[in-house]
Every structure is written in C-alpha cells, then in structure tokens.
Batch of 2 targets.
Target 1
Amino acid sequence: MKICVIGPTYPWRGGISHYNTLLVKGLRQKHAVRLFSFKRQYLNILFPGKTQIDNSKYTLKTENEPVFDSMNPWSWLVIVREIKRWQPQLLIFNWVTIYFAVQFAMIAYLVKIFTKTKILIICHNVTQHEPIIGERIFEWIVFKNADYFIVHSEKDKQHLQKVIRNPNVYKAYHPIYERFKFIPMDMNEARKKLKIMDKNIILYFGFVRPYKGLIYLIEAMPMIISKIDVKLLIVGEFWEDKGSYLRRIRQLSIEKHVLVIDRYIPNEEVAVYFNAANVIVLPYISATQSGIIQMAFGFNKPVITTNVGGLSEVVKNGKTGYVVPPKDSKALAEAVIRYFAEDKEKEFTKNIMEEKRKFSWKNLIKVIESIANEEN
C-alpha cells in the first residue's frame, strides 16, 4: 500500500514530531510511505518557545522530504503534484492547530479534485486548548474534505461531531512513547545524576501554559509537604511569564521543595527526569489527551491527573494513578498524599505494565490499515 503523510519529523522538536516519526516508522514496516515534512514550520515571531529545532544528541528521525513551507503556497502545490504523480491510496494529515488550516485545506481540496486518494486526518486536538475566535470555521474548511478521522479520546470525537455532520471517525488510543530509553538507568542513578536524593519526588513535565494548570500543583504543595516530605520537579520550557510562578513559590515558602528546570529537554535527558520520579503529576485545566501520560507509561510511571478531556480514559483511577477534579488544589494534594501514604507505587506500576499493551503503535497502524482498505 502507498501512503503519504504530512507532518513534522527531526529536526523539528516536540511531541507531534515524535509522534509522526514513530507513526511513519511503524507504517514503513509494511507499506511504502512518503513523508512530506516541513521546510519551514511556524513563523518564529509566532512561536512561544526559544527554538523550534531539536538539539538532541539522540534523535528520533526518519527519511523524509522537507518541502512543506507553511508560508509558501508554491510548496503546497508541489506536495499536491507529487501526490498526483504517485497516486497513494491514503494521505494522512496531523491536525494540531488552526495555524495550518489554510495550508491543509488547499492541499486537501486539490487532492480531492485531481486524485482518488483518500484523506485521513489524525486529530491530536480537534479544538484549540485556549479558545480562538472563529476557530470553528477554520476547522470546518479543513475537515470538510476529509474522508476519515482518527481521534484519541471520546471528548475529541464529540468535538468533531460538532464541526462536521456524521464524520467517519475512528477512536484509537494515543500510543505510548518508549523510545526515550536511550541509556538504561534506574531511579538511584537518575537521582545521582540530578544531584537530588530526596526520598519522594513528583514530576511535572512539559511546557508551561495556562491550560496545563501548573499553578494548582504549586498551590497544593504546602498541604502535601505538611504530610509528606516531597520534592517537586517542574521540568519544561515556560511559554508564559515564569516570574508569576516563582513569586507564588516564594510566597508559599516552598522554595526548598521545588526545583524548576526552564528549558526544552533533549531526548537523551528525558529518561533522567522520569526515572528519578516516583509519580508524574499533570494538573491540566483542559485537554483531550496527553503525550506526557504516554511518556510516563513508557517508563512505567504512575500518573496523577485531572478529569478533563480523555485523560480519565487513559489513567485508570485507583489502578494506574489517580484522577481528580480540575482546578482543585486540595483534591490534587490529597491524591499525592494518598499515593505516598498508602505506598501505591509498586501496585500502580505493575498495573501499568499490564495495561499499556493496548497503547501499542501496532494497534494504531491496524486502524489506519483498515481505513485504507475500506475503499477496496
């Protein structure tokens, strides 16, 4: 089967690049796949991070054709031309943000006109985490040309049904990330490397934006440390004012219990932070699904998170972690205290090792193959 994919891979950094790279690698085990990656992704002025480039020593990459320039319509036409020449059975878009709405809409429209290629959109987020005026219109102009959709949560399926009437949608779990174990390392080694020897460590991982809800975890810390001696690692690049978080940490007098690492973590360092932690805490205010949870499960780490989007579909409350209401620091603190007080780490870790089998890349690829075969 011939498949074309549009999306990032190395040297572009981030979770979508990792996802798309692993997806293409998996598809290539059985199929001929052309990956049209980016020549230019976001305009630098619009990108909130320090850089879009992955400076990791150990990279996740795959063969690709870096022709897609988000600001150059000619490059979109080049992709259409190549799809017309090659005549794949399936074209896959990775949908994340309306920044790419016009580009994707034009490519999809022309592919529908000039080829018989079926179009599949993998929706990482149907809607934006932080609402944008007119976003529903941009979503519709892209989605109306798609033949199939894959979502990773029931919430996204519901959102999609509000944009497109009767979409041909499949739900598949977001696969786990196990490719960050570049160097074998246990908890003691990881903590020595970080020069942190606290008995109990909780980890917040990923970039910091309002919808991630980090402030509620910070607010929970005084209650947590009144019962359990813990260290909170905040690891990830701040995409908003870091000063407000640091001021709140000082106001709560919890500085010695919090370590802030404000930078994008290269691939070879990811394992250090996850292996050092006893539990991952993700206090999201809004979400559909989370690649960070799948990274945690890749390291067999339990997760405490909030009941938003599809997170409770992945984290089984009382089995692989705890799920609490969003914007509730007290509930978050109680979950962390319970986790350590009842010594749940071994039990939850064992459950994760059994549960994560359903989060394999093979399962996602089977769904894509069944979609491609529907036209026959």
Target 2
Amino acid sequence: MNTKYEPGLRVGEYVLEERIGRGSFGEVWRARHHVWENDRVAVKLPTEPEYVRYLQREGMVVHGLRHANIVGVKGFDPYAEVPYLVMELVEGPSLREVIDQHPKGLALPIAMEVLRGVLNAVAVSHDQNVIHRDLKPGNILLDLKDAPLERVTAPQVKVSDFGFGGAHADTLRSIAQSASLAREDKLVGTLAYMAPELRDGRATADAGSDLYSIGVILFELLTGERPAGAELPSTLSASVPPRLDDVFRRLYARHDRRYESAQAVLADLDAHAAPDRFRPPPPPRSRQRPQCPQCGATVRGDDNFCTTCRYALTNVRLCGTCGATPAPEDVFCDQCGIRLPA
C-alpha cells in the first residue's frame, strides 16, 4: 500500500490537490473531479495497514446516515489498490481549531448552536443504532466558508469520523494507548473524551458513552478547557448560566445517571430556551376617550350613537318597523313588539 501521497495523484475519479488533515493512521486531502474541475471533495486515505479496516467500516456505516449535521459520503472503494473514502468537502475549521483560538471558551450563543448541531447528528446516528465512539472537537467541523464564527448556525455543524463506530472498546483502547505521542491528532487525546466505563473495559459503547463525550465537549465550548474532578462550567466562567451546569452534570456523569438520549438533551435545551413566563406587563392603554368621526364630540367606548349628533358609531341593529335599537339577542322589538328577523 502506497502511504506517500502527493498532489496530482489520481484516486478513483478524483485528483489530489492539497492535504488538509492528518491523523495517526490516515490523511485527508482536498481533491477535484478529474473531469468536472469545480467539483471539490475531501478524500480519506490510509497511511497505516491497520487503518484500512476502519476506513472500510466508516464507508459502510456513514453511507446510511443522511443528515445535514453528518459529513456525507460521495464515493467509496475499500478494495482499490489505494482504499479511499470520498466525503463532502466542508469549507471551514474543525471545532478543535476554534476552541484553541478561544482559550476562555466561546460566546454562549455560538456554543449553543454548535452543541445543537452535534446533538442532532448523534440523535440521527443513534436512531440507526450507530454509535460514534470517537466524538471530540477534532471530529466536528464548522461549514463556515467565508462567514464569521459569530454567524454559525446548527445546520453548519458537521460530525465526521464514524470509523470507530462498530469497533469493540478493547480495540480502540489498545490502539489509543499504544499510539505515538509524537503523532499529530494523536489517539491518546481520544481517551480524554472516552466514557470511564469504556476506558477501563467494564462495558461496550452505547448511546450513553457518546453523551459522555458530548459533556466533555460542552465543558470545552463554555470554558476552553476540559473538565477536571467535580468542576462545573460556571466554576471557570461566571457567565455560564446554572441551567447549563445542570445539563453538563447529566452528561458528564456515571452511566446510570446520564441523559437517556440526545433527544432528551435537546428537549432540555428547548425548555430552558422557552420565553420566560414572567413577562413584564403590557403598557397601559391610552386614557384618551374616543371621538365621534362626524362631529368630533367625545363618546363612550360602549356607545352605539353619538349623543351630540346621533351618528351611528357601530353597525347598530334597527327595528324595521319603528326604528328602535333592540339588543343583538332580542327576538322581539321592545318598543313595538314586532318579531325581529334573525
């Protein structure tokens, strides 16, 4: 297997242009279609033999995950001389880069948009029985193109790297623990986001283990740091509201105390975001009394006629015989006694 990739190399239908990412076992290249030059994609390529099976697994798993918050698959050949996976090209930074540029944490509105995007992606994958297993800021991309970070919305958040989704916990743990500390985006960093029951081998991955990882990511979004001990986000940032401390507690918790699903987290966020029921009272109505449109005299709000010029202020019901003004509910005129039309 050729592990040295260079610009101009043809991989399937695409020609490599520039390496845009590198991990412990693979690389990501921006590439163009060999005919349609404006068709740009991201191509994942293995650099280590052991990564090929994860690349194959990712291609199989992500193909069925169709959602705006999940990086989509455009091509896949696990049996080519150089196995490859073609993905949509996300024109923006990884969340890892963004957090590194904001060591005190992101502004609350930005953090909430990112969190919702990640939760939406995970909710879809869990509905299809796919556990990500490697959620971390490096695997979350922001499709900003040229827009500023302040304008990011939840649909622009893209979760990638589902390659470990079906792997057994022992496999990922052994790979992570043996990874070289000198490698970029080292897998050892993955352990910081891994649920404790997976780190010590007591359980296999499930929806709860992904939610634990999201708890660590939430803490970083709000503070710029990973959690330690019993710290809450508000411990490091006084601007964090108590409601988000509560959400963090139920994510970064023992398995049996975590949220039961990503949808439950979203429901909590929606409930907290609902308008406060203790709204300020409406402004008082004007005390100015209405005026007759014909003569300008002041009238009462419940008058049918102007008491000055007898102008009809409302569409008044009249008796067709005597001209009296019966009430809307009257069946007979109380002046002449004739039966009124319905």
